[in-house]
Specification:
Elements: H1 9-38, H2 54-102, H3 118-167, H4 173-202, E1 208-211, H5 212-229, E2 233-238, E3 242-245, H6 247-263, E4 271-279, E5 282-289, H7 324-334, E6 338-343, E7 349-356
Parallel strand pairs: 2-4
Antiparallel strand pairs: 1-3, 4-5, 5-7, 6-7
Helix pairs in contact: 1-2, 2-3, 3-4, 4-7, 5-6, 6-7
């Protein structure tokens, strides 16, 4: 937005300093003048014929007062200009850093030294903002690159299948259609996951009162056939636990947690326990499963999009793109909650979701 040019802050501060100094000097001279004239007689002989009269005092004091006022005005302008420049020097550094950030350089930091004052607090807040912004932009770029790679894979597979079918007319069309359908289904699932992740990150949803216990029961009922095929015992415990948020997003969050707990479990005889309750004024959802022991260094990466280590890769019916826990983390963050991941000593994972409770 273009604005009309005006006086700079430094010039306005300079004029303010000079004006204040001139007014203070004028008041001081006026007080001195008044007291001097008050006790000097106004006659031709003066006091006892020795002291000067009021006329001589005015003639003597007026030029000196005018010279003093001129000196104060010049001193105020020069001193105010230098003082304003010194006071605004930190602001110039902040402005330069803001311009660099506006040009796309987010790695620059002000790093202002000195005691804690208003400019130091502003510089520190600006550095913190740049650090978070740089981290967010880097994460978004990495996410976009990974998403493009993940979306490119099913498209490349589809193109390869079609090229092979065109070169080999005798190829079984049913097998081709089945593979194309599987690839297309995976691409649609990935696209929907990306859209859901974008929606939860943006916080564009209507908040309603939701009972997490009912959401957990619905997710468990949906995934019960999967648990039975894998020989996993699925238990839902706890009482009514209400929070505010999007029923659709919260259902997807719980479904992803329960599905991960079922898939990343023991080959047979494993268990998954979902518990809801209220603790310390927060609505708590816990999902605990058995499984192989998890390395501690792997746990922090579980919520990163597309980060699928050798322990996390899964194939078959529920092969994914590594967005399950990333969506969970995004939904929890959008609802003002916290997500905790802790490996169980005997194997498996304990996931704890804390959300603001509502009456």
């Amino acid at each position: 937005m273009r604005r009309r040019p005006g006086l700079s802050v430094r010039l306005r501060l300079t004029l303010s300093y000079a004006g204040f100094l001139a007014v203070a000097g004028a008041l001081l001279l006026a007080v001195v003048w008044g007291f001097l004239l008050r006790y000097v007689p106004d006659n031709t002989q003066g006091l006892l014929g020795i002291s000067p009269n009021r006329y001589l005092l005015v003639r003597t004091f007026a030029p000196a007062a005018a010279a003093a006022m001129v000196f104060l005005l010049v001193f105020g302008l020069v001193g105010g200009w230098l003082l304003a420049g010194r006071m605004l020097a930190p602001l110039s550094r902040i402005t330069a850093a803001a311009r660099l950030a506006g040009n796309g350089s987010l790695s620059h930091r002000i790093g202002m030294d000195g005691r804690a004052d208003e400019f130091r607090e502003l510089a520190d807040a600006f550095d913190t903002m740049l650090e978070r912004l740089e981290s967010h932009v880097t994460e978004q770029r990495r996410f976009a690159a990974n998403a493009s790679h993940e979306l490119r894979t099913p498209l490349a597979v589809s193109q390869t299948l079609l090229d092979v079918a065109r070169k080999d007319p005798t190829r079984d069309p049913d097998a081709l259609f089945a593979r194309l359908r599987a690839v297309n289904t995976r691409a649609i699932g990935l696209t929907e996951a990306l859209l859901l992740l974008s929606r939860s990150d943006g916080g564009a949803f209507t908040r309603e009162s939701v009972d997490l216990s009912l959401v957990a029961e619905e997710a468990a009922e949906t995934l019960l056939p999967l648990a039975e095929r894998r020989g996993i015992t699925l238990n839902v415990t706890g009482g009514a636990t209400r929070t505010g948020g999007s029923p659709e997003l919260l259902l997807r969050m719980v479904t992803n947690l329960v599905q991960n707990a079922i898939v990343h479990n023991l080959p047979t005889g494993g268990t998954v326990t979902v518990h809801t309750g209220t603790r310390d004024g927060a609505s708590v959802l816990r999902v605990e499963n058995t499984g192989r022991p998890l390395p501690p260094e792997l746990v922090p990466t579980l919520t990163e999009p597309f980060q699928r280590g050798t322990e996390r890769v899964r194939t078959g019916e529920h092969a994914g793109a590594g967005l399950g826990l990333a969506i969970v983390h995004s939904v929890v963050r959008a609802h003002g909650g916290t997500l905790g991941l802790a490996p169980r000593p005997v194997g498996g994972l304990l996931v704890t979701v804390r959300l603001p409770a509502t009456p």
